Amino acid sequence: MGDLCPMERTTNNKKPLISIRNLVKRFDDGHTAVDGISLDIYPKEFFALLGSSGSGKSTLLRLLAGFEQPTDGKILIDGVDMTNIPPYNRPINMMFQSYALFPHMTIEQNIMFGLKQDKLPKDEIIKRTASALKIIKMEHLAKRKPHQLSGGQRQRAALARCLAKRPKLILLDEPLSALDKNLRDQMKFELVDIQEQTGSTFIMVTHDQEEAMTMASRIGIMSEGWLEQVSPPQEVYEFPKTRFVANFIGKSAIFEGAISEINDDSSVIDSDETKCSFKLDRRIDGVEAQQIWVGLRPEKISISKTPPEDYNPSQPVNTIVGKVKDIAYMGGLSTYHVESASGKRITATDFNVERNADHPTWEDTVYLTWEPENIMVLYS
């Protein structure tokens, strides 16, 4: 059950590369780190597992790699059950946070190492190493050792070592966490370019929302060992399915309410918390009187010192009246913290398009309004 997403994309016509079925990992102390997850990941995807510390995302990655054994459930790669297959025999390479480059070897030797372990012919080793160096644009640095490289170069070298083995799947464990902000911003796009260029399937673990939103084709948001939602980035932001997701990705004002009307092309949710009705331009799942929550993003809320033309103070629709309590001026936009009559704090952002506009100020009475299509419907 969920709010209708007009943007929803499907990958059902593809055969999944990774099939996770009812996966459980329970440690000896009784803690359940992964709690019955089922998930399909498709060839050439850049998939991000996003969650806060302790959500289970790193445990799930370790289960995929074979470093942990599941308590229950299965992991299939290309239809093959991985349950009894050790890490070194899985068609997977993993890039660790530390990059794990051998310090006494050159970058070229680091890339060759895994290929030699696989006992590939010498000509093939040279060919794959040269190809990997070309992909990461580091041919001129092939003879350098890791300590002679920058953080970003070491990261690319570690990725080249993964790519050279041509695995079906590359796992990235917080790949940008060791880099400074400027280098992180640069490497986000470089990693995506490399993934698209090689056609590899990447699964990345991160706690950074911006990284996941920028890099991934789909995001799985984890909380307490469970996947709260799996969707492309735009859908996660615009159509979150739960209050957790709405608050974890970006900021949201969330109100409790109950469904009062469901029509073919519209729905109404009444909220005692706001003394306002939320009118939507679409039919939603549910039944009348069902408890539900609605969410609004700050940038989707308009703020004005004058009421909308159709404003009815006795039965307000898509309008909340409040007082400005705080203002944060940030040049191109201002953020307003507005307190409603019920005491609820609501954040609205307003772009400063006009230099001398009559913007609201502290303690002004203001009217917060929004378009029906911008109301997020949350079922839990």
Distance, first to last CA: 10 Å
* Main beta sheet: 6 strands, mixed
Query: Low-confidence segments, ≥5 residues, pLDDT <50?
Result: 6-10
Major beta sheet, strand line-up? 6-7-8-3-9-10
Counting DSSP E segments of at least 2 residues, the number of strands comes to 20
Structural class: alpha+beta
Count every helix, treating DSSP H or I runs of 4 or more residues as helices: 8
Strand-and-helix sequence, N→C?
EEEHEEEHHHEHEHEEHHEEEEEEEEEE
Strand content range: 25-35%
The portion of residues assigned to helices is 10-25%
The gross shape turns out to be elongated
Mean pLDDT, all residues: 87
Radius of gyration: 25 Å
Question: How would you describe the overall organization of this protein?
Answer:
It catalyses: ATP + H2O + polyamine-[polyamine-binding protein]Side 1 = ADP + phosphate + polyamineSide 2 + [polyamine-binding protein]Side 1. InterPro entries: AAA+_ATPase (IPR003593), ABC_SmlMolc_Importer (IPR050093), ABC_transporter-like_ATP-bd (IPR003439), ABC_transporter-like_CS (IPR017871), Mo/tungstate-bd_C_term_dom (IPR008995), P-loop_NTPase (IPR027417), PotA-like (IPR005893), Transp-assoc_OB_typ2 (IPR013611). This protein has 380 residues and is of the alpha+beta class. The protein has helices at 57-65, 107-117, 122-135, 151-164, 181-198, 209-215, 233-238, 243-248; strands spanning 18-26, 32-41, 46-50, 72-77, 80-81, 92-95, 169-173, 201-206, 218-223, 226-231, 253-262, 267-271, 276-280, 291-296, 302-304, 319-329, 333-340, 345-351, 365-369, 376-378. The strands form 4 sheets. The protein has a 6-stranded mixed beta sheet, sandwiched between helices. Helix 5 links the parallel strand 7 (169-173) and strand 8 (201-206). Helix 3 (122-135) packs across helix 4. It is elongated, with a radius of gyration of 25 Å. Mean pLDDT is 87; it is low at 6-10.
